[in-house]
Amino acid sequence: MSNDRASLGLNEEQIDLEELVIKGQQPHKLTLDQQKTMEREGAKLGFVSRQPKKRRRVSPYTAQFGGKCREGMKTLFQDIGEHLGCYDTETLEKAILALLEKEAIEDLEKRFREITK
Fold it and tell me: Residue ranges per domain, the chain?
């Protein structure tokens, strides 16, 4: 058996990529009708668009709040939100508002309403 291996061609002359590019050719742009037709035909073959169906609105909930709580309190909080039919962010806001109203802290309640309007 021989120890000679076939060359990978790494030491040979490099390929000039400019020779592979057709000069002066513009990329083809599809019209809106062509785009819709192409998507429709692609869907028949099982291809689906990866583009989002609609643009989601920007959430007002951007600041993070991380706090520690007692064991089981997190799941209780999530169960309350599920019962109310809202996300944790809204549940927290409702809890803060209820506390401010119960304790009659008017200045902070006014500030809360300014933040959440």
Answer: 73-116
